[in-house]
Amino acid sequence: ASAAVYAMPEETKEFSVENVRVTKILGGALSDSEVIHGMCIVRGSETSIHKVKNARVAVFNSALEAESGDTKGTVLLKTADELQNYTKGEEELMEKFVKKLSDAEINVVVAGGSVSEICLHYMEKYKIMVLRIHSKFEVKRISSTLGGAILVRMDAPTPEEVGTASEVYCTEISSTMCTIFKRDEEDNRIATIVLRGSTNNVLDDAERAIDDGVNTIKNITKNPAFCAGAGATEIHLASQLQTFAKFQPGLDQYAVERFGQAFEVIPRTLAENAGLNAEEIIAKLYSETAKSPFYGIDVEDGKVKDAKELEIFDCMEC
C-alpha cells in the first residue's frame, strides 16, 4: 500500500503498474520485506564510486569493450616496442570514448553486457559509476524509469538520450549488494518492494499476490466501485438467475438456470481451498443470500458471515 501511495501521480488515472516493482532477495522472513523509494537492482557498482547525487545516466544496450573480428588471426611481435604499442590504439580509443562521456557530464553508466577491464580503468579515472545488467528487459526498465534512451552505439549520448535520477547509491540488503535509483519526479515516481523469504517458492507466491494487488489498485483508479467479496456476489447472482429462469418459457429456462449455477464455482472453490465441505457451504449461502446479498464465506473459521461487516470486497473493474 505504501509503495502504491508513493508511486501514485496526482492524476490517478495515469497510475502505471510498472511504477511499483518487486525485487526478491533470498534470506530472512516475509516480515523483513521493505519498501524502497526508487528502483532496486540486485547488483553492485563495478567501480569504487558507490554514491552519485543528481545523476546523469547513459544506458547502453551492449557490452562496453573493443570490437573483435569474427575470425582468429596470429600476430608476430619482433620487438619490445611492438609489444608495448600493440594495445595502445585500443586504449586510446577507449579513453577517448570515456572522456566523451565525462565531457557530457555523465556520471553513471549502465551496460547491457560485459565491461572490459581497460574500460573500467578509465571509468574509474573519470569517476564514473558503472553497472552491468545482463537482462535486456531490466535495461529497458531502467531506461524507461530514468526517462532516457537506450544507446546501441559506443558514443556519448545526446542531451535527449540522457536519463536522470536524484540519487544513485549502493546499499547492502541481507548480505546482497543492491543499487538504488531514486527519482523524485512527480510524474514518474518509482517504488520497489524488496521481498525477503526463506525459499524461492515463498518469494514467488508473495510476488504474485503483490502483482494482483497492484493491478487491483490500477483498476480502482479507473472505476472505484466495489461489490461484496468472499463469494457473496456470485452466490447472489446464481440465486437470482435461477429464480429468473423459472419464469422463462420453453428450453430457455434450462439455459438460464445452468448459467446461474455456473456462478457457484467461485464460492465452491473458496470453500474447497479452505478445506471446507463445499456442498454444505453452498447450501448455507443460498439460505442466507435470500435474507441479504452480502453473505459470503469466512475462510478463517469456515462460517457464512456478512462480507460487508468483515470488509471483504471485490473490485468491480476486475
From TrEMBL:
<keyword id="KW-0143">Chaperone</keyword>
<comment type="function">
    <text>Molecular chaperone; assists the folding of proteins upon ATP hydrolysis. Known to play a role, in vitro, in the folding of actin and tubulin.</text>
</comment>
<dbReference type="InterPro" id="IPR002423">
    <property type="entry name" value="Cpn60/GroEL/TCP-1"/>
</dbReference>
<dbReference type="GO" id="GO:0005737">
    <property type="term" value="C:cytoplasm"/>
</dbReference>
<dbReference type="GO" id="GO:0140662">
    <property type="term" value="F:ATP-dependent protein folding chaperone"/>
</dbReference>
<comment type="similarity">
    <text>Belongs to the TCP-1 chaperonin family.</text>
</comment>
<protein>
    <submittedName>
        <fullName>Uncharacterized protein</fullName>
    </submittedName>
</protein>
<dbReference type="Pfam" id="PF00118">
    <property type="entry name" value="Cpn60_TCP1"/>
</dbReference>
<dbReference type="GO" id="GO:0005524">
    <property type="term" value="F:ATP binding"/>
</dbReference>
<keyword id="KW-0963">Cytoplasm</keyword>
<dbReference type="InterPro" id="IPR017998">
    <property type="entry name" value="Chaperone_TCP-1"/>
</dbReference>
<comment type="subunit">
    <text>Heterooligomeric complex of about 850 to 900 kDa that forms two stacked rings, 12 to 16 nm in diameter.</text>
</comment>
<keyword id="KW-0067">ATP-binding</keyword>
<dbReference type="InterPro" id="IPR027413">
    <property type="entry name" value="GROEL-like_equatorial_sf"/>
</dbReference>
<keyword id="KW-0547">Nucleotide-binding</keyword>
<dbReference type="InterPro" id="IPR027409">
    <property type="entry name" value="GroEL-like_apical_dom_sf"/>
</dbReference>
<dbReference type="InterPro" id="IPR027410">
    <property type="entry name" value="TCP-1-like_intermed_sf"/>
</dbReference>
